[in-house]
Specification:
about 45 residues; mainly alpha; elongated
Amino acid sequence: MALPQQDDYIEQIHRLEGLMAYAEAHQDWEELERLKERLRRLLERV
């Protein structure tokens, strides 16, 4: 995997982790589950 593409994936993962932490802090469980699914799909592509 090329470095710029790898950096893009890392950036996306960090963004999703931040959004998940925000959703958890606000007890938005539906959004948290949706974000977990997005993270799972992203990690499958890596």
